[in-house]
User: Fold this.
Amino acid sequence: MTISPPVKEAVRAIILFGSPGAGKGTQARKITSRYRIPQISTGDIIREEVGSGSSLGKKVEAILAAGRLVDDETVNQLVEARLDSKDCRKGFLLDGYPRTICQARALQGILDRMPCRLVIIEVQVGYNETVRRITGRRLCAQCGAIYNIYSHPPKVADVCDGCGHRPLSIRSDDRPEVVKKRFHLYQEGTVPVYEVFRSAGEKIHQVDGTQPEQVVCAQIFEILEAEGSNDHP
Ligand code: AMP
Assistant:
């Protein structure tokens, strides 16, 4: 009797790479809403810990504000616990993880234990555009909407179009002096992570993130469709 191997296409794990401000958060929302899978953003998880005043939040608050990376062990544990949740069984999107070689290897270990099809996409944006985008970014602390005072301003200055909350917030690590550090950290730390996946035979799909948001989105959907279909509307 032959035993069938696990169905590799059952779950789709999407990794969305991109420098800070590349539009990962915006695109991640579109993808997760289309495919009805959770968005696992390590930045959001860490900001929630800081916001809640938990002991972990207190430990990492200064690291976050300085634009440095939280230690691998902490982040790997947060992600492993999150991926163990029921809502990840039909697929998930990772945003902001993995960011180091150590995290990439930890993720490979987790994925080896899960029957899933991995799709990796990098949204590419250069340094000058990164700075312009990040320093213009404003967030609604109530509903999570993302604006940019240059390219996507709210209808009324400083007021959320969706829920009317005001004022909009600026993330502590979006200050210009921190942005430069975050961009270089990304180049030095995360770009080598691609090699971990490439040497494991994975393809990194690249999308030009300087194109209009809808075009970037359409290209990402095209890649995901070509990589096999999960249920979507
Ligand atoms: P992000 O929202 O992805 O730009 O992340 C905001 C901040 O959270 C980063 O500057 C880091 O301080 C921390 N962070 C998020 N993801 C990670 C990660 N994978 N590894 C280490 N630190 C992270």
Notes: The CA atoms of residues 27 and 214 lie 9 Å apart. The two ends are 38 Å apart (CA to CA). DSSP finds eight helices and seven strands in the chain. Residues 20, 42-43, 46, 63-64, 67-70, 75, 96-97, 99, 103, 173, 182 surround adenosine monophosphate (CB under 6 Å).
